[in-house]
User: What shape does this take?
Amino acid sequence: MKIVVLAGGLSTERNVSLVSGTGVCRALREKGHKAVLVDMFLGLEDYEGDLASVFDAPDGRCSDVHVSGTEPDLTAVRRSRRDQSPSKLGKNVLELCALADLVFLALHGECGEDGRIQAALDLLGVPYTGSGYLGSGMAMDKAVTKRFMDAEGIPTAPWREVRYSREDIPRLTEELEVPCAVKIINGGSSIGVELPDTKEELAAALEKLLAYGDHIIVEKKIRGRELTVAVLGERYLPAVEIIPGEAYFDYVSKYQKGGAQEICPAQIQDSVWHEMGRLALKLHRALGLAVYSRTDFLVDEQNRPWCLEVNTLPGMTPTSLVPKEAAAVGMSYADLCETVALESLKARKAERA
Assistant: This one.
């Protein structure tokens, strides 16, 4: 198949996405597909030839990329593009997608997991991987996802949705209980997450998160083990336990060598794993997700799982959590990437039937 692996974009998770996309592109080429990596925001600014010939590019236009210890400078990325229009789509991105048999979405965060690129590809009639636009958009919004958890009886920490300005911070600091978790409504990779234990830390957290917008959720902090369970098709995979090197699983812990220990299968009772798997499948289905997803949990001292959130386009670097879970059931990274591609084609065909 001719496959465009769409990555990058203008999300705070841009760098992670590029690493995911590079791994996926090379894996699909290993499987014999004509896969090519395209940065959704920069597009094909450096390409002047026939678009159809892009699929014959050496190594699928992949380059050596890595995730640094700091968030990407999106202002610098914007300035680097010759086209300074407000479009989030780079040169010839949609035109190349229209020539593909499938678009593999290796995007994370804004414009990738929020349903917008899925809707654009639906209008083009181009198949893509993962969930559709509606499920993606709902799952990206932490408040909407929390409402689904509450409606479906999926245990999650008591929470509150907040829209605020700098003038509201003194009042909110008094109203909100600590310790708590404060999260931007549409964040990922632990960017835009603060875990204040005191009122002073809460005020500082609210001030800091205004840099990402005025919409957050605040939830009771539950202390426990951090685990995650992937859904692939109609089954759930072995759980992974994440043991952060620091206080919690932040951006550095996720992507820097030695930042965290990831144990798969997690050393937990089978009953706890099956309960998390049941809840992950239940949330996956309630939101109308497709093909694959990854749901994150905290397990408290009483072995009770508390659901945090669901990821519709989880990290797909060769060492990411979903590939670790797939490897635990004997599925190679290349086989996982191809399975996601083929099952997504079936899902899109079913939606259009």
Remarks:
- The longest helix spans residues 333-352.
